[in-house]
Specification:
It comes from Streptomyces siamensis. 12% of the residues lie in helices and 39% in strands. It is mainly beta. The relative contact order is 0.11.
Length: 464
C-alpha cells in the first residue's frame, strides 16, 4: 500500500520496518555465536609424577585454543579426580595466561589418580583431557629435594656449570642433562651406544671430568646373574662444549679391556684382591668378595691418573674390611690410544666397613666419598658421607650419616663445595630403580611411563 497519507498506513509500515530490523539483529547474533569453534586443549605430557610434601614438583603445560576467541579468555580447570586420597581436583593449581597454562598438583597420599583437565570456551563449550598422576610418599628433607624424571636409576653425575648436571643411568646408556634446582624431565639427552659399538647396557656407574672431557666407566662386573656381558667392560669419554642449559656433548673415544687389565694386574700381585675369582662365571658382583666398580675421580692435581672406587670387594673381603681405590695412571692414553691400563699403588681406606659408591673432588683437591654397602640390598643398609684430602696416608673423615628410611640408595655426589666454608652444601642423588615408589609393588625401573620414573636429588649441609 503506498498511500503514505494514511496514518494507519504509516504506522503499519513503521511497525513492519521495526520487525525487519529486529530480525536482522537476531540473525546477526546467531551468526556471531556460530563462529566460535569447539575449544581444544593439549597436554605437554599425559603422565605426571609428584611426591607428598614436595617442593617444586614437575608441572604439565596446557595449550588451549578456540577459533574465533582470544585464548586468554578461555578458562582451564581441573574438575575431577578418580582417587581423592591421592589428590583432589582442588589440589591441582592452574596458573598462566594466554594460550599456555600450567597445571601443578599437591599430592595428599601415595598412589595413582586420573585428573580431568577441562577448558571452557567463551560460549560455554568445553573439552577435556585426562592427566594420569602418580604420587610417591613423603621423604625426609623434602624442602631440599628435587626429582629427576625420565629415569629411576641415576648412577653417576657430573656438574657442567650454570646449575646443571649430566646424569648417567645404569639401566641404559642415555646421558641426561638436568636443571639441578628443579624437578622435572631432562632438557637434553645423548646416547653414544652406536659410536661405542655396544647394543646392551654399559651399566654406567662412575664419571669424572678433567677440562672439557668427561670419563664414564661401566661397573666392569658380571651382571646380577653372574654372567659376563662385554658392554659392561667399557670406559668412554665425551667432550663438553658450553655450559648450563646450553651444554652439548660429543663422543670422544672408548676402551673395552679395563676389567681384563685389572684381573691380570691382580694376578701378577698374588691375587691380593681376588679379582679373578670375583669376575669368574657365576660370581655375583655385589658380594663382599665380588667385583664391581662404582666410583671414578682424578688424583689430586692430575689429568692422567684416575681412581677406580670399588663397591666390591672389600679389602680384605670380610665384614669390617676396608674400601678399595685402584689408581689408573694412564687413563688418558688408555682411552685415547688404546694403551693397556697401568696401575699405581692401591689405596685401602677405612669407611667403617662400607665401600665406595661414588667419589668426587673439587679444584682444591677436597674429596667427598659416598659410602655404602657392597650388598645388593635395599636402602636399609647404612650410608655415610666422608671427606678426604687425597693423601693416601690420611684417613677419610665421616661428615654425616645419610638417611636410609626413604626409597632409593645414595649413588652419586654431583660436585664438592669448599669444605673450609661453614654451611657448605653438596647435592647427592639416589638410584630408585628397585624402589616401589607408588605402593603397587612395581619397581621403578619397570614402570611403563618415563614421567613416573624418577631419582631424588637432595642437598645436604656438609660443613658445620
Amino acid at each position: 500500500m503506498q498511500d503514505y497519507l494514511l496514518p494507519s498506513g504509516r504506522r503499519a509500515v513503521a511497525v513492519l520496518g521495526g520487525v525487519l530490523t529486529l530480525a536482522a539483529m537476531s540473525m546477526g547474533s546467531q551468526a556471531q555465536a556460530a563462529s566460535y569453534g569447539t575449544p581444544s586443549l593439549t597436554l605437554s605430557a599425559s603422565y605426571l609424577s609428584g611426591a607428598v610434601g614436595a617442593s617444586g614438583d614437575p608441572v604439565v603445560n596446557v595449550t588451549v585454543a578456540q577459533s574465533g576467541a582470544d585464548a586468554g579468555a578461555l578458562t582451564v580447570t581441573v574438575t575431577r579426580s578418580s582417587k581423592t586420597s591421592v589428590a583432589t581436583a582442588t589440589d591441582a593449581t592452574v596458573t598462566g595466561t594466554g594460550a599456555t597454562r600450567q597445571v601443578a598438583v599437591a599430592a595428599r597420599g601415595r598412589g595413582y589418580t586420573d585428573l580431568t583437565v577441562q577448558v571452557t570456551g567463551v560460549d560455554g563449550q568445553t573439552a577435556t583431557k585426562t592427566l594420569h598422576y602418580a604420587a610417591s610418599a613423603a621423604v625426609q628433607r623434602a624442602a631440599d629435594s628435587r626429582y629427576l624424571t625420565g629415569s629411576s636409576d641415576a648412577s653417576a653425575a657430573v656438574d657442567v656449570g650454570g646449575g646443571y648436571a649430566v646424569v648417567a643411568d645404569d639401566e641404559s646408556n642415555t646421558l641426561r642433562l638436568y636443571d639441578r634446582s628443579a624437578s622435572g624431565a631432562p632438557v637434553r639427552t645423548w646416547d653414544f651406544s652406536s659410536r661405542i659399538g655396544v647394543s646392551k647396557e654399559i651399566d654406567i656407574e662412575g664419571a669424572a671430568r678433567v677440562g672439557d672431557t668427561i670419563y664414564w666407566t661401566g661397573s666392569l662386573g658380571n651382571n646380577k646373574d653372574g654372567e659376563y656381558k662385554s658392554a659392561r667392560n667399557t670406559v668412554f669419554t665425551t667432550k663438553v662444549a658450553g655450559s648450563g642449559a646450553s651444554t652439548a656433548l660429543t663422543y670422544g673415544g672408548s676402551y673395552a679391556k679395563l676389567r681384563d687389565n685389572l684381573v691380570a694386574w691382580d694376578k701378577a700381585n698374588g691375587n691380593r684382591y681376588g679379582f679373578a675369582a670375583g669376575t669368574a662365571t657365576g660370581q655375583i658382583p655385589k658380594q663382599i668378595d665380588g667385583f664391581n666398580v662404582e666410583g671414578l675421580e682424578f688424583a689430586p692435581g692430575s689429568t692422567t691418573t684416575a681412581y677406580l672406587g670399588f663397591r666390591a670387594p672389600l679389602a680384605p673381603a670380610v665384614p669390617g674390611g676396608k674400601a678399595l681405590l685402584v689408581p689408573v695412571t694412564n687413563i688418558d692414553k688408555m682411552v685415547g690410544s688404546g694403551a693397556s691400563a697401568v696401575f699405581g699403588t692401591p689405596i685401602e681406606m677405612d669407611l667403617g666397613g662400607l665401600s665406595v659408591r661414588d667419589i668426587r673432588k673439587n679444584a682444591a683437591n677436597q674429596y667427598l666419598i659416598v659410602a655404602g654397602s657392597w650388598a645388593a640390598d635395599d636402602n636399609s643398609d647404612p650410608y655415610a658421607l666422608y671427606s678426604w684430602d687425597g693423601d693416601p696416608a690420611h684417613a677419610p673423615v665421616k661428615r654425616l650419616d645419610l638417611p636410609t628410611s626413604d626409597p632409593g640408595g645414595w649413588e652419586s655426589v654431583v660436585d664438592v663445595p669448599d669444605l673450609g666454608v661453614p654451611g657448605a652444601r653438596a647435592q647427592l642423588i639416589t638410584d630408585d630403580g628397585s624402589a616401589d615408589l607408588y605402593g603397587d609393588g612395581v619397581e621403578a625401573k619397570d614402570l611403563t611411563h618415563p614421567e613416573w620414573k624418577k631419582s631424588r636429588a637432595t642437598w645436604f649441609t656438609v660443613t658445620g
